[in-house]
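Sample log: Gfo/Idh/MocA family oxidoreductase.
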Amino acid sequence: MTHAPVRFAILGFGHHAVRRLLPAFLRSQETTLMGMWRRDQEAAAKECATHNIARCFATREELCASPEVDVVFITSPDAMHKDDVLLALRHGKAVLCEKPLSMNTAEAQEMAEAAKAAGLLFGVGQNFRFNHSLAWMRDQIEAGRIGQPQMAHAEYAYPAGNAPRKWITDPTLACGGPIADVGVHCIDALRYVLGEDVVSVSTLARRDESSGKVEAVASLQLEMTGGVYAHVSVSARAPYRTLVEITGSDGVLVAENGLTVDRPVQLELRRAGELVETVTLENGDGYTRMLDSFAQAFRGTGTFAASGEDGVRNMRALDAAYKSWHTGLRQTI
């Protein structure tokens, strides 16, 4: 039995939508992008024409109220997420919201509770949960191939000076610098592959002239359930690189480019210093897999791996990371 595609509209259309989401919708068999809204209406009209998007909504309210929209995908700046999510929920729409979910845990909890009270599907765009590379690592750990995980490391570096999102250094719009922007991906990836949660956080970070009031480089030490000690390192001042490593009692998993969708990911399983297995995987369909999974959950034929309630857990870790940086003390969650 075939289904009509689930109809999405993007609220807060910007560079991320053009670069990542539009190609993902084109590849999706379960969804269709039927509309969008952005504050700059002249730019919105041009983008709708360029990308053949059927509806260019005049206001956020018009988008959320439209009977032609099943799901509102929120990609606005972080500080706008709470109001945008609550608006969509009030209009009875399912919501997929970009990460970081909000500016703080209290906002995230309010959003999750509102979705639960309304009985509406609410998810977070933690797209890496739909990458083949993380799924492979999770499978190896669950199969016991490295024994009991003991240490973990996730790294995400990128040159923010080249980034088109100029608001990312504005603390009135952004939850933070690279800790919130990409560190949340690292934290979420470790939680996902390990099946564990963050217990406490200790943070070192520094600002620079370009970052202003937000951090430019940071190192987070995480205590996790299951006796795992983890390290997350992020930088907005280095060439692009992502890495995920898990050290267990019997072996090691290494994923160079583990959190990327633009190039092949080399995964290794090592024991006693020897290479046991190597796999090369592509994550190019990760965003499409995320959209399709959300559509299946919307129809009631599947579950979505990055729920809004789970997103609250990531926000607790981010809040603890920033509090640790500002106080100089380890923060327990």
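Observation: The mean pLDDT is 96.
Observation: The chain has nine helices and 15 strands.
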